[in-house]
Amino acid sequence: MRIDLNADLGEGYDDGALMPFLTSVNVACGGHAGDAATMMATIVAARAHGLAIGAHPSYPDRESFGRRELGLEPAQIEATVAEQVRALAAIATGAGAELVHVKPHGALYNVAARDLRTARAVVRAVRAVAPTLRLVGLAGSLLVEAATEAGLATAGEAFADRRYTANGSLAPRSIAGALIADPLEAAEQAVRIVREREVIAIGGERIVVHAQTLCLHGDSPGAADIARAVHDRLRGAGVELRALGG
Fold first, then answer.
1. Pair 180, 162: CB distance under 8 Å
2. Least buried of 59, 95, 122, 157, by fewest C-beta within 10 Å?
3. What is the DSSP letter of 19?
4. How far is 85 from 67, CA to CA, in rounded Å?
5. H or E element at residue 193
């Protein structure tokens, strides 16, 4: 058994507290957060920890932290995703690093999971930048399907610190309890996903999940404690932690 542990970083939180427990990072590249300085600093720190580096593009919406659906046309989505990924790739090259993957952020991630036009726009953007990049999306989603059809390497993602609905989607943040704040509970969910390939939804339903990477949110309260608990519980359960592409 093995899994990648990733987190969305470069968003203005305490990245250094999470990095020792991760194997991959998704770096905000200007759409919802981040600038050239934060991108460089995050990449340098990630390299020092031996972490795989990925781009974390979003809707161009810093005001709402990329968590608002903007209703952009596919061509607009393709253009902004490609621009953000290229910006991070250029900074990575300057730091002597390379990008391994791309994971959309927030509302773009959720829309691409269920809307094929959006999914294909994201896929086209990634292929235009570098067809060798791996696309990370919600396990079982249309984004993963579209990327596979286009010949991109993929990684299905699950979440240790988020609850699910009965249809396999992430519970909206507006719902009470959508975020798992208890480190031990997040750790148990992580182990269940890896070992049992399932997650228990809010209503008690058992949802099948086939994931190659687990996400931990750096902006959650107690994020470092959650990351430590998930990391330690997985290793204690005999799970190998390995970066995407590693």
1. yes
2. 95
3. G
4. 19
5. helix 183-196
With a pLDDT cut of 70, the percent of the chain lying above it is 100
Is this structure's pTM higher than 0.90? yes
Closest among 155, 172, 171 to 163, alpha carbons compared: 171
All domains in the chain, ordered by first residue: 2-241 (3.20.20.370)
Indicate if the pLDDT at residue 174 is higher than 90. Answer: no
What are 21-62's pLDDT values in tens digits? 999 999 999 999 999 999 999 999 999 999 999 999 999 999
Q: Is the model's pLDDT at 97 over the cut of 90?
A: yes
226 pLDDT more than 80? yes
In whole angstroms, what is the distance from residue 57 CA to residue 123 CA?
12
DSSP 128-175: HH-TTSEEEEETTSHHHHHHHHTT--EEEEEESSB-B-TTSSBPPTTS
DSSP string, 96-129: T----EE---HHHHHHHHH-HHHHHHHHHHHHHH
* Euclidean distance between CA atoms 73 and 107, whole angstroms: 14
Q: Residues 45, 16: contact at Cβ < 8 Å?
A: yes
> Strand, coil or helix: what is 38?
helix
pLDDT at 151: 97
pLDDT of amino acid 27: 98
Q: Which residues contact 140 (CB under 8 A, 6 or more apart)?
A: 156, 168, 208, 209, 210
Closest Cα partner for 164 from 189, 132, 142?
189
